[in-house]
Specification:
14 helices; six-stranded mixed beta sheet; 19 strands; alpha/beta; Rossmann fold; 477 residues
Amino acid sequence: MANIDFNQLTIQFDEHFSLTDLDWSIQDGEHWALTGPNGAGKSALAAAINGAGDTVSGSRTEPNARIAVVSFEEQEALIEEERKKDDADLLDVIAEGTTARQLLDQTCADPAMQKQLIEAFHFAHLLDRGFRKLSSGESRKLLLIRALSSKPELLILDEPFEGLDADSLTFLTTLLRNLASEIQMVMVLNRFDELPDFITHVGYVDKGQLTHQVGTDDREAVADLGQLLHLKTTDLSIPDAIVDYRAPTLDSTEPLVKIQNGKVAYGDKVIFEDLNWTITPGEHWQVTGPNGSGKTCLLNLITGDHPQCYVNDIFVFGMQRGNGESIWDIKQHIGYVSSALQWEYKVSVSVRNAIISGFYDSIGIYQKYTDVQKHTADAWLRLLDMESYADKPFSQLSFGDQRLVLIARAMVKHPPLLILDEPCLGLDDLNRQLILALIEVICAGSETTVLYVNHRPQDAIQGIEHHLAMKANTGQS
């Protein structure tokens, strides 16, 4: 493989972001990890290896190699392609669209590797399912199978471990270690503790510049980089709720959610069944389970975003699904963060307005907001150290920064029920610690009940004492 060389390189990606003064070379046999804060340019730098961005000055030698990419941007591109084909606006269900099998076969150059990965990721039963019907973790597995079975010589992996359950993460880590002697890799990692042992060099990116480059054999230098990604979260307090925009008061004697014999199935494929679950005010719940066990389906039954919510026996805030309540009767009481929301939030709106849209449960702003709402949104931006981004287009933020804004959007109205579906996905260590600390503050109060989905034991939240464990294909344990 030809070496990669950036010499005094400045690359413009759009009017809001550029990488500047890059001096960076990757030699044959080296494996790099890029780390740094959200919005620093880690993903942009990895994408630049594959020719992304416009060269403003300097020079770059790109690899003469077969390149495969796994990234949130790649996932978003596939979703956008499916959305263009989809007539879901005319139906109450998502059209089947391109199947997982078709997407895998588009790029397969190594059928034996593809078969191995399908078996290891327990993906066979998903092959004929439409891409947009896959869960977040299942979509991630599809991207990994596509990339690894395309016989790449250079593998660019942007947060490859995000969204994977524990067994899949262990398998992938071992597989990549075994492939390191054959395939050169560049990884983008937010979690410094996930640095694989075969990585030879680490680059730290900040404000569009590659500020540090160290070999992993220099333990002291690597430890110093780790310290750059840590934050002490003491004395955190969330902005106050605003009185004039509280949702109508709920009956405190009614459960927030009650599901009786819940079931989700696609044809003959049962995702879960016989699920009985009650959430009462003041209880905080963690939901866990392997990819494909139905965690996100379950959340969408509660929010009304799953077409099968009306054929299930579900009470939300005392209202039975299918008995005349509107989706807005439900959503005014819920704050929600998920990957699906992030993929859908594509309107042209500023960062401040994206947060304010949480008051209206809308994607975008379609009415005049109040000075008090603006003040509250600005308070959240200060808390997240994103004040300078207030008027920046939401679509121009990095994936991790978008996730931070959507978390503020979910929390801004202090809802009775806050649903967080893998809220730390795509966040660097600093912001992950911040968000986990904020959730702990919320759990310590009595106003909001938290429903928290995650895969990582290290992201456990103090104050969440109830647990629903989902099992693949069978629902709860």
